[in-house]
Design brief:
mainly alpha; two-stranded antiparallel ribbon; 9 helices; 2 strands
């Protein structure tokens, strides 16, 4: 008999869909040359990802990295069909990590990037032109890698839906998942997000965004003429 279990807490679900919306917005603002908005979306993505990283340590059971990041033996056990669990499986856990690190790398490199026309990232002034161009290349590379990971992610969702009759989308909307049986280590009651943990995670995310947004580049070096006048 199947049982209903609460797997994904609401902060995690809200993060997931806000990140999806933000990545779509980042693509559209770049395509339509709305670079100021592209920059704002990038800051939003940084805030979301900082929140998720912190939540991976202080959130509820299945939100924590310790619940789904396993070493090679854990991944091999899953591939042999020996894994039992209700959150991310060991292989999916590493793909989740990549889906966090790639947008973080893109957003970070975008802070130092330029478009060779009129737009520079918030922190591009900290680098010379050559280094900023390298950051721009990394930003574009990250986008291509992210497209590949998203394609694999969607393919995995389709595979589980049609091959194993497991709907991975609905639990990310409602938080609840139908399982065949509970493991001995699975809590019998619903785990709710802790208020203090949530405030802590949101505060660090807000501080990260505010710190980046207010960090000013160093002043340009004085010209020889200006130095002589001094």
């Amino acid at each position: 008999m199947e049982q209903r279990i609460y797997v994904w807490d609401w902060p995690l679900r809200l993060f997931h869909w806000l990140l999806v919306a933000s990545l779509i917005a980042a693509y559209l603002t770049q395509e339509f040359d709305l670079m100021q908005w592209h920059q704002r979306v990038g800051l939003t993505i940084i805030g979301l990802l900082v929140f998720r990283i912190v939540w991976g340590f202080v959130g509820t059971r299945h939100a924590r990295f310790s619940d789904f990041l396993r070493g090679p033996s854990g991944v091999l056990a899953y591939l042999r069909g020996e894994w039992r669990g209700h959150g991310h499986n060991p292989l999916g856990g590493w793909s989740v990590l990549m889906l966090l690190l790639l947008p973080l790398g893109m957003a970070t490199s975008g802070l130092f990037a330029n478009d060779d026309v009129a737009f520079e990232g918030l922190l591009a002034g900290w680098l010379d032109k050559s280094a900023s161009d390298q950051a721009t290349s990394l930003h574009h590379l990250g986008f291509n890698l992210l497209l590949g990971m998203v394609a694999l992610h969607l393919a995995a969702i389709a595979y589980y839906r049609f091959r194993h009759r497991h709907d991975l989308v609905k639990p990310m909307l409602t938080g609840w998942k139908q399982v065949e049986s509970l493991s001995a280590s699975e809590p019998g009651k619903t785990q709710r997000a802790g208020v203090l943990a949530l405030i802590f995670s949101l505060s660090l995310a807000g501080l990260a965004v505010a710190g980046v947004a207010t960090l000013e580049p160093p002043p340009p070096p004085a010209t020889p003429a200006a130095a002589a006048d001094w």
